């Protein structure tokens, strides 16, 4: 039996969804379809395109800097996904035990997330350059410096966010299972690895999904912290696409082709990752 | 009943979504007068207010409406891409030298326009496919701006070899001065002869673009061309190395830290009298005025790189260009030409652009009527012009990508991670490869 509100929603959902749907179509679907079409075209502005077939894709795949950016991005994503999730989980685990000031710590850890990527990039550039100045270096001294600078920045920003998701997961764990384990004489370590973590798999799925896709798509922080310097050696995929699009006349289509390839990669990885972690999910 | 509520609901939904999305579009005023309409997309974001003032006066006089839009310099290209894609695209837009090739499918032939006919030198206009595609309307000059008071202190010192600024008329003299200042920096109370040669994105283009234009100018001259050549010889690479090494060695900051040094750092070095020279141009006057170095203490030297006959070299001249959109309607094109003529010939407009907006123009009519800006960096050029020195004109570079690849190579050379050969490759080989992929 549906309530009155439920009945109205069933009847009128389309109406309420319409404004958002329209915005979604204009802001996402149309550009998405257009970008796929444009990736097969030569163009200077988006309304004035000439079909040229797969030429753009060939040019994109021939670009060694694209492959470098891809490798850099994969390495970055692997490293940050591991660090963020392990540390995020650890902090969450710590802050769900009875320690003093847990709430303050939660806010403090979450805070970096509220700062925009560009500002964060500039702040960290100043901080890291300030430290590196002791050795007469700067963050853009080499691609390796840029890589670890980005890792530090991004972990600092994301650990707090993942922590919140893990905390809510930990808090909703069924207490009876853990109690039963304790009664059976499981030690803390056994409880963590055999009870808590398997039960936390839904949270882990969400968090790894977010860190993997966000790591892949990282742009603002990269732009503000190193801008790819020196010689594009600290350039990630999104920045490479942006630079391709705007760097040379006639390369808009190549940038577009790279963006489509980028989308396929991110979508594929996200689906595989989701399958993998979801298959490990258990119910208590 | 049911049907009417459905219709009502649909209408409301449309109204609602219309409300959320109306903020996206910003349609320009329709051309009500039938006299055509001007839509000008300008590069000078800080002067949009003044442009609008000027447009108001123009509209009052002619009845033609003018819309002005703009974007900051680092966003300008992106914004132009969006603007030109509109059905009501700009009828007139600004281009600069580096981005000139990007819009070749939009340029109208401007050879019959008055601004082109009125140029002091026809070679200043940019040509593509045999037609006049862009006409300069703002002149900028750059060189080595120096602090006259500090330099005088140097001339007056017992240890200085060179005793007057007239003697600094080639690279050798410049190097002597810079090296001696660097050596005796404590006596002069400075941290270096030159401000930091920063390679932060805000400052990198000063070297990979502005300094690079000097050898590029001589390459063009050797090839006797003013359109972009497919290849350059690299003959002036040692000269380019000369000047860049000087900037690195005789500077306020160690070369390993240049990657993070910003334009602001360079300005503050100069404003706080920590450095004698700064390589920048007329546009920087806003950042230098009243910040410590008085106007009468600012002088400008040409950027000497050690070429033959450079004693007669003058300051580097760069331009901002007008380009007309060939897709505009004839009526709008006519209105746009009237707008340009207004700026060119109307006394009220000329007074406003030169005194209030601070523009220096390459037009005969302005020179004849005596309209010029008080900007001391512009006025420093008068002496060179009077002495008959030649302008170092900035000619097109292959692409923005060439500039940034060169900049990165220069940075890696500066901090010692790669050698000069890498810079040379980026400059010479990079030129032909960029030319090939963009032409």
TrEMBL record, chain A:
Entry annotated with the keyword Zinc-finger: no
Q: Where are the transmembrane segments?
A: 12-38, 66-95, 107-127, 147-170, 191-212, 253-272
Which key words tag this protein in UniProt?
A: Cell membrane, Membrane, Transmembrane, Transmembrane helix, Transport
**What GO biological process, any one, is recorded here?**
transmembrane transport
Annotated InterPro entries: MetI-like (IPR000515), MetI-like_sf (IPR035906), UgpAE/MalFG_permease (IPR050809)
**Residues in ABC transmembrane type-1 domain copies:** 70-273
What compartments host this protein?
Cell membrane
Q: Which Pfam families does this chain map to?
A: BPD_transp_1
Protein name, entry field: Sugar ABC transporter permease
Organism, by scientific name, is Bifidobacterium asteroides
From TrEMBL, chain B:
Signal peptide boundaries: 1-23
User: What GO molecular function annotation could you give as one example from this UniProt entry?
Assistant: maltose binding
GO cellular component terms?
Answer: ATP-binding cassette (ABC) transporter complex, substrate-binding subunit-containing
- The scientific name of the source species is Bifidobacterium asteroides
The record's section on InterPro entries has: SBP
- This chain's protein is named ABC transporter substrate-binding protein
Listed A to Z, the keywords are: Signal, Transport
Gene3D superfamilies linked: Periplasmic binding protein-like II (3.40.190.10)
Q: Which PANTHER family match?
A: MALTOSE-BINDING PERIPLASMIC PROTEIN, MALTOSE_MALTODEXTRIN-BINDING PERIPLASMIC PROTEIN
Name the Gene Ontology biological process terms.
maltodextrin transmembrane transport; maltose transport
Q: Which family does it belong to?
A: Belongs to the bacterial solute-binding protein 1 family.
Please give one Pfam family short name: SBP_bac_8
